[in-house]
Amino acid sequence: MGEITTYVADALAALTSGNVWLWIFLGTFMGIIVGAIPGFTSSMATGILLPVTFSLTPINALVFLISVYIATIYGGSITAILLNTPGAPESSASTFDGYKMTLRGQGCEALGVAFCASACGGLISYIFMLFAMVPIAKMAVRIGPTEMFLIALMGVSILAVLSSSANVPRTLLSGFIGLLIGTVGMTPTGQWRATFGSIYLAEGVQVVPAIIGFFALSEVFNMVGKEFIVNREVQTKTSVRKIVKGFLMALRHPKTILVSGITGMLIGAIPAAGGTVAAFTAYGMAKKSSKDGKDFGTGCPEGLVAPEAANNACTGGALMTTLALGVPGSSTCAILLGALSIQGMTPGPMLVRDQLPLVYVLIVAAILSQVVMLMMATGAGFGLTKLLNIPTKVLAPCIMVFCIAGAFSCRNTMFDVYLMFAFGIVGYLMKQFDFSLPAIVLGIVLGGIADKEIIRAHQLFRSRLLTAFVTRPISLVLLIVIIFSVTWPYISAAMKKRKQNKGEC
Amino acid sequence: MFCFKVGNGLLTIKKSAVVVVIFDIFTVAYAIASWHLSSVSLMVPRFLFAGIAIFSLMCFKQDIHYVKDAAEDKSDGGEAGHQGLGLSAKLCAFLALSLLTLLFFDTIGAVLSIPLFLIITMLILDVRNIPLLILLPIIMDAFVLAVFKWWLAVPLPAGIFTLF
Fold first, then answer.
1. By percentage, how much of chain A surpasses pLDDT 70?
2. What is the mean pLDDT of residues A154-180?
3. What pLDDT digit, counting tens, does each position of A317-342 carry?
4. Residues 151-180 in A contacting B (C-alpha not used; CB under 8 Å)
5. What ipTM does this complex have?
6. Residue in B15, B34, B102 closest to A194 by CB
7. Interface test with A, best of B20, B41, B151 (most A CBs within 10 A)
């Protein structure tokens, strides 16, 4: 406990001495704006803004990106509640009761409920993180190269759990291709691998063009041809007093906030499960357990509290696995992993072991940013709806320009821009046919790690390499998780079929 | 969906197979480019090749169908034909223009290519507001230069301006 107090005190001191606050404000502001625009996900926002962090200190860069990440969830709720159009997928469940409240003339109260529940959910997960990081760090020293290799594989394979059985091959194929792209470049043994004679590929495929291409550019291509992102006919008026009234409405449901917050955090910790799954799960749980469950879906504030607390708590869980294990809890966290690498840090157990003070600065900054977000989101409720009136025929070319400049700034070469463009086209096609974009990007981020660790493991265990995977307890557990995650969609589909057949009989 | 008449039947291939083919071409190119490397350097890639081969086959199994009765399949093909690759004429023009901009970005320079790209793209996408067509490219150009070139010190290509 004393150790944690010292880290927290040091983190607070670091936060007051630097210009971190500026980056928290800036990240929150940009995150809310981007999050409120449907079609702009948190991964797209962090992807586009990633080049901004290149010249920043590691703390400022990561605090900025984390603020953007968390703030997009807030921003997404605004349009979900006011326009029935979730700005981010994580806010989808908020439309059930939030939009119904707006239709009843309680749009501002609904915003207040959402902001307050989100802040509480976020605080629950980050405070838990404060206490969980030291034990995780102690466990992290037991993690060797075999475990690290399996963790890298797990990041991709666990995506399959959330796919339907029909989509598992596509998700895993995307993940494996990503891993293969991640291994391009100079090998740990000093050989040039699959560089196709290009000197630019000697350092490997850069994460930034991949992220911008797969997430941002593919979305830009998707926008072309659409007139507006949102239906312009929907309009609403806002008032601060009513939003504050909504805060109090949310605080009347402490049990729902707590349960949904913990649920969101746990789901967020599972790689790729994400805020959308967390929000829907929390909504379903709250509906079952609440005495007002039958009113859910008709504009019940508790029905808005549950998904909002969960989707924000999810960011804490996702960050925990990202920082502690190096396995991104979401596609946005994959970008954060990239940001860590760009800042010269090795994501995963080594980060927690060697840079625990920095990790605590990030957690404390995330807690403080919740307060900043609560204030800024309240203010944002007024002006944001106007942004939605920008036609995509103006928006898409502007974003394209940012994508080009962002990819170029990675290494100041046009090669990365061409790479981004190619990834954008492939990403667009993948999107059209339900291939997993997070899987391929996770693969690119984790490919290099998997490659380096397996070579380390080979040097360490030599002929006993295969047996090391099953004789080391953590490795064995990870192996079981990987096998389970790949086979579960098939098992669950078979079980469902069997149940249906029994019912028919 | 692509349809091919084979004997009395019809071979139908879903358009999603295009993505699998792109992935497989990359994998084969990777394998050819790295075949001479030591076994240690190829430990992970070999494992991935095997996985990609298995998952590609599984994807193809979902995407490729052979129907003996060709008449029966015609309706299916027609229905799925609407899905396409999602490439509309506007998107194709946008892609072509983007590619052209990227190819000449280095030669022309960022200062000129950004506003040119914005004006032509907006025209292609049916923007007919003259003040917007003039002002937005200038504002965006100034913004990108201010943020990337001066603030972040990214040496965006100067192109023809290097002559001056």
1. 87
2. 79
3. 888 878 877 777 667 787 888 888 77
4. 166, 169-170, 172-173, 176-177, 179-180
5. 0.89
6. B34
7. B41
